[in-house]
């Protein structure tokens, strides 16, 4: 990540002017930053591009797009990020046909069901040329099966058409798989199926070069941090509201280096600075609940929101679409509550409000404010500080910011999700995506749409397997890590939906060694069986395989951390003593 450094106490601020008639001058651009930190990488990159050799790309923002190609509205997976020399790049992944699968009912002949399905699809899309179908067979994730089921694979040309026909098919009571009811995040499904890295270095093939290895060892994303100062002459108390003329964005002569002369010019200059820097991530504290709202509402009132957005974004849009699709509420699950955000969503840049991040880090704290977190981190409140202390706090903040963002990207990289998903969605979604990717790789199909009929009861407690007394000398088990007790039970007893039998008759017919499981739920006796895997890979269920994979990744990480443990402790002691 590129961040500016404070090297001395000299005030080197320069003044520039912007009056909406001449270009904004004197503002560093991303290309200036690339040139400063190039180290010869641009020349190498240009050589690789000209020879059509492997290039490395770090994704940061992902979106689903539909554009007309040869007269057909075609799906495009658009990924923005940076190359090895920190230049921003946009990658369009083409030739992806959005699809879902339809379950063929056993009681209806295949030819008759196909005719019925084609009629439904044609009525919705208006033409048979806008979709394609194919008969396939696959295992169902729910329940233990020895034979594959028949499905009809429905492909469309874009994700919006897929969404329309999927809803129509389900409305007439037809079961589906490989599905979802939100066209906004179709890229997650694409990444699962194609195993595309959306938050780690993407490469076309293996390449071993010392220069590239050095470049790939650090994060090249550019982070923009910001804050606004507002003032109200109404003196009504509380935060200024953008809808009143008397409430303005303050022009602080100690901080503002671009002299604008009016709020309209100030907002336009802000948009131009954004365009020049072309950042990958922008962060602020509580900016989603105040700064962004004030900026957007004031820009709408002054009639410059569309102008600003179209200079900040590589994808121009109309005012109506901007306010409808790019300026929306988001909700983050933080601890036991919800945190509501609203910011201007700029294509190619991920917005992160660090307030909910701190709420998650300090989940046991009852208070939540910038001043409170500063005190908890042994930092002074927002007051004037000597330069040398600002430098120390700044360096510490940079390390913390980089670590948190890198940690989020590492977590979602193994579940084929984006940085946006890491920040705005709870951990359960990451688990579902990883399971979905693994199920697709194993040829298992399932629906990702929640069942409308849910149980209202609650389990009395965890199921406890009765102990088998005696000495086990064939497969001894030692409990060393009780933090992983539930995953260990899932792996040992093969507790996975694709290895569960629900009827006694099918259990007898399976010819497999089984674990019998019984418990009470809503005053009813529940009985089921899980297939014993006997440590044979082919017999292990989806959940067991995924947990083993995560366990191996965890062990790899712990090995890498061993030599860094003492080094980190030594550096930490030096920092605090310094």
Automatic annotation (TrEMBL):
Record's catalysed reaction(s): DNA(n) + a 2'-deoxyribonucleoside 5'-triphosphate = DNA(n+1) + diphosphate
Enzyme nomenclature, EC number: 2.7.7.7
Residue ranges of every copy of the DNA-directed DNA polymerase family B exonuclease domain listed in the record: 259-361
Domain of life: Eukaryota
Short name of any one Pfam family annotated for the protein: DNA_pol_B_exo1
Keywords: DNA-binding, DNA-directed DNA polymerase, Nucleotidyltransferase, Transferase
Listed InterPro entries: DNA-dir_DNA_pol_B (IPR006172), DNA-dir_DNA_pol_B_exonuc (IPR006133), DNA-dir_DNA_pol_B_multi_dom (IPR006134), DNA/RNA_pol_sf (IPR043502), DNA_pol_palm_dom_sf (IPR023211), DNA_pol_type-B (IPR050240), RNaseH-like_sf (IPR012337), RNaseH_sf (IPR036397)
Composition-biased stretches (Basic and acidic residues): 9-20
Region entry Disordered, spans: 1-20
UniProt key word Hydrolase: no
Domain DNA-directed DNA polymerase family B multifunctional stretches: 441-565
GO biological process terms, semicolon-separated: DNA-templated DNA replication
Any one GO molecular function term: nucleotide binding
Membership in a protein family: Belongs to the DNA polymerase type-B family.
Name the record gives this protein: DNA polymerase delta catalytic subunit
């Amino acid at each position: 990540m590129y961040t500016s450094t404070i090297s001395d106490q000299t005030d080197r601020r320069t003044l520039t002017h912007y009056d909406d008639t001449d270009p904004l001058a004197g503002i560093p651009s991303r290309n200036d930053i690339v040139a400063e930190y190039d180290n010869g990488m641009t020349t190498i990159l240009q050589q690789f591009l000209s020879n059509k050799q492997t290039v490395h790309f770090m994704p940061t923002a992902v979106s689903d797009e539909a554009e007309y190609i040869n007269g057909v509205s075609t799906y495009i997976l658009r990924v923005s990020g940076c190359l090895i020399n920190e230049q921003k790049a946009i990658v369009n992944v083409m030739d992806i046909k959005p699809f879902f699968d339809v379950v063929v009912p056993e009681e209806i002949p295949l030819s008759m069901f196909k005719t019925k399905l084609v009629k439904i699809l044609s009525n919705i899309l208006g033409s048979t040329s806008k979709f394609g179908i194919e008969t396939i067979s696959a295992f169902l994730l729910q329940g233990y099966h020895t034979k594959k089921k028949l499905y009809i694979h429905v492909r469309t040309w874009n994700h919006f058409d897929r969404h329309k026909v999927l809803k129509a098919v389900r409305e007439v009571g037809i079961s589906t798989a490989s599905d979802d009811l939100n066209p906004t995040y179709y890229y997650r499904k694409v990444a699962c199926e194609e195993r595309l890295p959306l938050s780690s270095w993407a490469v076309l093939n293996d390449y071993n070069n010392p220069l590239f290895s050095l470049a790939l060892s650090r994060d090249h994303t550019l982070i923009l941090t910001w804050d606004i100062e507002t003032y109200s002459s109404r003196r009504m108390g509380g935060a200024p509201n953008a809808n009143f003329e008397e409430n303005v964005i303050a022009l602080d002569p100690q901080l503002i280096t671009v002299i604008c002369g009016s709020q309209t010019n100030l907002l336009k200059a802000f948009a131009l600075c954004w365009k020049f820097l072309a950042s990958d991530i922008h962060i602020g504290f509580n900016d989603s609940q105040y700064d962004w709202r004030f900026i957007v509402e004031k820009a709408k009132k002054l009639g410059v929101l569309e102008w600003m957005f179209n200079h900040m974004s590589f994808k121009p849009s109309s005012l109506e679409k901007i306010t409808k699709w790019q300026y929306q509420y988001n909700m983050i699950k933080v601890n036991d509550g919800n945190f509501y955000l609203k910011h201007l969503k700029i294509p190619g840049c991920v917005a992160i409000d660090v307030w909910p991040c701190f709420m998650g880090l300090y989940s046991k704290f009852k208070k939540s404010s910038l001043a409170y977190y500063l005190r908890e981190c042994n930092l002074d409140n927002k007051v004037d500080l000597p330069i040398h202390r600002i430098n120390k706090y700044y360096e510490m903040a940079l390390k913390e910011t980089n670590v948190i963002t890198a940690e989020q990207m590492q977590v979602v990289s193994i579940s084929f999700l984006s940085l946006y998903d890491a920040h705005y969605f709870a951990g359960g979604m990451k688990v579902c995506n990883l399971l979905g990717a693994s199920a697709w790789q194993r040829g298992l199909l399932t629906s990702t749409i929640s069942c409308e009929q849910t149980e209202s009861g609650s389990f009395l407690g965890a199921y406890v397997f009765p102990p088998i007394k005696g000495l086990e000398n064939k497969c001894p088990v030692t409990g060393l890590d009780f933090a992983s007790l539930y995953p260990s039970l899932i792996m040992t007893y093969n507790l996975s939906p694709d290895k569960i039998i629900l009827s006694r008759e099918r259990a007898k017919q399976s010819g497999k060694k089984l674990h019998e499981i019984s418990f009470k739920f809503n005053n009813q006796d529940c009985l089921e069986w899980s297939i014993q895997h006997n440590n044979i890979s082919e017999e292990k269920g989806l959940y067991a395989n995924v947990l083993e994979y995560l366990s191996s990744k965890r062990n790899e990480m712990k090995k890498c951390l061993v030599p860094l443990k003492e080094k980190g402790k030594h550096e930490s002691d030096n920092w605090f003593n310094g």
